[in-house]
Amino acid sequence: MESIDWRNLSFGYVRTDYNVRCYHKNGHWGELEITSSEYIPLHMAATGLHYGQEAFEGLKAFRGKDNRVRVFRWADNARRMHDTALGIKMAAVPAELFKKAVFTVIRLNEKFVPPYGTGASMYIRPLLIGSGAEVGVKPASEYLFVVFVTPVGPYFKEGFKPVDILVCREFDRAAPLGTGCYKVGGNYAASLTSLEIAHKKGFSTTLYLDPKEKKYIDEAGPANFFGIKKNTYITPSSRSILPSITNMCLQQLSRDLGLQVECRPVPYDEISTFEEVGACGTAAVITPIRNILDPDTKTTYEFCLDGKPGPVSTKLYQRLISIQNGDEPDTHGWIEFPEQNNN
Ligand code: PLP
Ligand code: COI
After folding, report:
1. Which residues lie with the beta carbon below 6 Å from any ligand 1 atom?
2. Cα–Cα distances in angstroms (integers) from residue 253 to residues 78, 82, 312, 330, 336, in the given order
3. Within the chain, what is the greatest distance between any pair of CA atoms?
4. Is the shortest distance between the CB of 283 and ligand 2 below 6 Å?
5. In which band, very low, low, confident or very high, does the pLDDT at 315 lie, cut at 50, 70 and 90?
């Protein structure tokens, strides 16, 4: 793969050799198919196109110093996609099928897993759509499950460097009792206008508040939010945010480091009391936050005054990536090896 500049990869689509697909028809899943086509055949009346019956996932694989490929926490993504499918009345993908699809597509594209030490990884994108035709609003009778992969660099171009974010009150990404806790495309469509506003003003992303009262912190664009103070890792619990697997890791790693962990509604007014704040997710990993601008009160909350990520965020980041790359022992059972799973 001489043509890929691994160290300068952005978070984007790079064509790989294969993707895998499976169809759900007549009430059951068929055989997994392997293809090199980047296109999917889709009926023009598919519910995925009209009524938002669409869900996706994002997970990563890493190459270690030993050259082995490690997949990170696939079972948690399988569970979340299952919950999402039930949430919007789609056929759920069984965990065994999810695993087979993910491990097969990684094995087939092994040469696209970036070399150890480049900071890049393989991003795995499972996609589930209502492919059956309907014109009335109802769940489809057929579904298509696709998994493709692409090598990626950091989501925010800064990498592990502090970013600035903009508080957003004008738009919500999800309704109070809506689909915010599911990984459905509609939430991302709903975020695009505010994201564009943030980008135009020079911010990396938006900070969403709870859609009901705007009193609590929800999440930071495509990532969960956390704050650190008094040896405690604090992160919002909210019905309208995505349950982040990276956040679950950071809670565990915080406990391992001797921090307290609080997962609770986080009042917006608490921002000024944090010593460090950050965004976390598969794509974002840990992205430290430097400034949070509130355009309505014209207040800027400043962190990282020396321009560097805070000490706790740095420790958590290093722990997480060391486990992912195989440099530290995987004491929590987060890693699996596709080479050993010839399913
Ligand atoms: N929140 C949103 C809206 C996301 O899109 C993501 C990305 O998946 C996350 C949070 C982080 O979740 P995870 O750590 O499971 O990738
Ligand atoms: C992820 O972190 O996996 C995401 O899905 C974020 C974004 C690319 C939607």
Report:
1. 58, 219, 222-224, 242, 244-247, 281-282
2. 22, 26, 11, 11, 19
3. 60
4. yes
5. very high
Here the tokens at position 156 are 């925010």
Closest ligand 1 atom number to CA of residue 221: 3
Phi, then psi, of 222 in degrees rounded to 5: -85, 40
List, in sequence order, every residue forming a beta bridge with 122; answer none if it has no partner: 61, 151
pTM: 0.97
Sequence-distant (6+) residues with CB within 8 A of 5 are none
**DSSP assignments along 179-225, one per residue:** STTS-BHHHHHHHHHHHHHHHHTT-SEEEEEPTTTS-BEEEETTEEE
Tokens representing residue 42 in the block: 């889709």
The single-letter code of the amino acid at 258 is G
Instruction: Specify the ligand 1 atom closest to the Cα of 219.
Output: 1
Nearest CA to ligand 1 atom 2: 222
Residue 70, pLDDT above cutoff 80: yes
Q: Where are the beta strands (DSSP E) in 210-302?
A: 217-220, 223-229, 232-235, 260-263, 276-281, 285-294, 299-302
What's the mean pLDDT when you consider all of the chain?
Answer: 96
Please tell me the number of Cα atoms within 13 Å of 19 on its side-chain side: 21
Listed residue (202, 224, 204, 227) closest to 156, CA to CA? 204
For residue 58, the ligand 2 atom closest to its alpha carbon is: 3
Picking from 279, 287, 298, 342, the residue whose alpha carbon sits closest to that of residue 100 is 342
